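Design request, tokens follow.
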């Protein structure tokens, strides 16, 4: 009896040692992950807010201090200036920032952005930097929006023109599923906002009264947001509705250079079964910008299905598989978008066949922590 108790204690001790060793990396990984997330949160976006006040009529930089304060409290480093203070946008100026917010707030067209400045801004975007372009929401002298904002945006697929009544105060636009609108339900609408003519690869992501009001460009280089009014960012207006959240979302999205990867696929299905029987598994991932995605599945027994798709972002796919040999298998799946940007691997561990547990707690432990007992599993024949 004493020898039996010793053997039982030895087995339990081995299990606990294995369990403890396996937990330490998990805890370290969890802490590392938290530190990484915190580091990401504290990573500073450097933003140049440039108001195109022409020196005689319009809104100078003092009109955008609310916006600067909100972005700074979000963790961004912000420099606020205007045309009277900084008379030219050049490469040297932009080299200190990873985002340019071009706020077209001039009332008259005595200021025309130069061709050199347009080229500098376009090259800045091509280098992977983020760009926000807002249109003046007035239409002086029937000239339309053919100056300032348009001098840049016309090269990127958006033309601002004329104006339309977009409400006065809080509005609830029809938002596309886009990171710009996470946590955003309402924003400020004003009178005589710009109409937008949009061509590919730019695309509309928000409409109101069936009119486009916000568009984006995400072609794998520097991202661009086009907004049809600067009033949403003006002092006294930023806190209206979810304007502050919208502004912070813009800063975050513009700072993500290049094409973001889809989420890690979630795999669901039976974790126990028998050999020579087909089982269905569900795979699901989403793309941050709504691009179509494809799935690559490995079943752990040397088989794979190649790339399946493309499918709509967030669309579940169901794939069946049969294991011919008993064992402890790991299903792996990754997703890629239309630009071939791949996600991390998603995993699901299964046992084929599932043996009736002689020691229920032991099998629960093996099933709950499959990576913790690889040696023990091997000794047990899995």
């Amino acid at each position: 009896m004493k020898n039996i108790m010793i053997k039982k204690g030895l087995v339990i001790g081995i299990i606990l040692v294995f369990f403890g060793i396996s937990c330490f990396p998990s805890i370290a990984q969890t802490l590392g992950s938290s530190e990484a997330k915190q580091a990401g949160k504290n990573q500073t976006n450097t933003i140049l807010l440039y108001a195109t006040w022409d020196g005689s009529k319009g809104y100078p930089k003092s009109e955008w201090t609310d916006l600067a304060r909100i972005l700074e409290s979000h963790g961004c480093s912000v420099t606020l200036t205007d045309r009277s203070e900084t008379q030219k946008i050049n490469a040297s100026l932009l080299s200190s920032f990873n985002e340019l917010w071009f706020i077209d707030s001039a009332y008259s067209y005595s200021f025309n952005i130069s061709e050199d400045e347009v080229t500098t801004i376009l090259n800045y975007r091509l280098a992977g930097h983020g760009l926000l372009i807002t249109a003046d929401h007035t239409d002086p002298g029937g000239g339309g929006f053919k100056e300032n904002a348009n001098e840049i945006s016309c090269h990127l697929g958006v033309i601002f023109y004329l104006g339309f009544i977009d409400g006065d105060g809080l509005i609830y636009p029809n938002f596309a599923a886009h990171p710009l609108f996470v946590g955003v339900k309402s924003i400020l609408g004003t009178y005589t906002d710009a109409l937008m003519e949009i061509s590919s690869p730019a695309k509309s992501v928000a409409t109101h009264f069936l009119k486009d009001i916000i568009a984006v460009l995400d072609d794998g280089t520097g991202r661009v947001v086009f907004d049809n009014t600067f009033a949403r960012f003006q002092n006294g207006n930023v806190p209206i509705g979810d304007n502050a959240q919208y502004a912070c979302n813009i800063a975050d999205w513009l700072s993500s250079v290049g094409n973001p990867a889809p989420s890690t696929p979630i795999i669901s299905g039976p974790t126990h079964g028998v050999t020579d029987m087909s089982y269905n598994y569900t795979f699901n991932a989403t793309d941050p910008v709504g691009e179509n995605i494809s799935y690559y599945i490995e079943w752990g027994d040397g088989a794979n299905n190649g790339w399946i798709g493309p499918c709509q972002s967030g669309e579940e796919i169901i794939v069946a598989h049969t294991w011919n040999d008993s064992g402890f298998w790991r299903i792996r799946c990754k997703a890629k978008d239309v630009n071939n940007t791949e996600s991390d691997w998603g995993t699901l561990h299964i046992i084929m066949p599932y043996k009736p547990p002689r020691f229920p707690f032991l099998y629960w432990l093996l099933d709950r922590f499959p990576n913790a007992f690889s040696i023990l599993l091997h000794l047990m024949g899995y």
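Comment from the thread starter after seeing the answer: thanks! The chain has two domains: 44-255, 260-380.
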